[in-house]
């Protein structure tokens, strides 16, 4: 009888251990799924450079964390966070953590954040991103999109731009509306979004680079409209996002899309000049991946939405 009781105990312990292992495996798998990322591999060849580079392009993670420092936004932040999670079946904070881990593991020469990393300028969201980015061992370039500095009902407004944008200074690394990361043979220039336009001082500062002799990769949030009629990018954007009330593409920047003002047009003209130094444009915003030519010489790389776990690793090859 005593031997049978011991056998039953051993059997019960074995069952408990198996169940615990299965539960742990299920929990780990669920956590992995909630933060699973998928990295698109791309290669861009640039004439005039002597070295190869590896960049990781991330955008539109829409981190939506809020605490009592922004009490008016608590309800909205929760609603937005839950909406993104329902749509993607993932948690943006976990995918963002995994993006940073991926960049560290692969020793990216530059990690590029192309806007809408935070869903609005809430302190909790900004603190989370700052803490994660402390893990990066290599340089990064961070620009803002149309959501990073919104605040409640302040969206596409001068008040949001002036009052809440300064909260992002530690992330962008500058009080200016542009940022430059210069290698000895290549320039990566980023410009912040200002309600689908660009800041006058930022454009003035970047034009000498865009018209210079060293190759430039230009980083912005809203992709540019290709210089081809009925381009595949524009057709897909219209299918997903629909047209504006005026029949224009809502999510690209260009003549028959989001119409550029005079300042923004100056930058676009510099991109599309026949002797432009701009070899590539990197962007986000549209929430789907696309690689296409803007004209005969300039490639545009657009990453899918980070809250879905999408990003692009781009190998820059010297020609």
Put the structure in a nutshell.
The chain has nine helices and eleven strands. By secondary structure, it is of the alpha/beta class. Helix 3 packs parallel to helix 4 (123-133).
Write the layout of secondary structure elements.
Layout: H1 2-34, E1 38-46, E2 53-58, H2 74-88, H3 92-106, E3 110-114, H4 123-133, E4 140-143, H5 158-164, H6 169-172, E5 178-182, E6 187-191, H7 200-210, E7 216-219, H8 232-241, H9 262-272, E8 278-283, E9 290-293, E10 299-302, E11 310-318
Describe the structure in your own words.
The protein has 319 residues and is of the alpha/beta class. Residues 17-31 have low confidence and may be disordered. Strand 9 (290-293) and strand 10 form a beta hairpin. Strands 5-6-7-8-10-9 form a six-stranded mixed beta sheet, with helices on one face. Strands 1-11-2-3-4 form a five-stranded mixed beta sheet, with no helix packed on it. It is globular. The chain has nine helices and eleven strands.
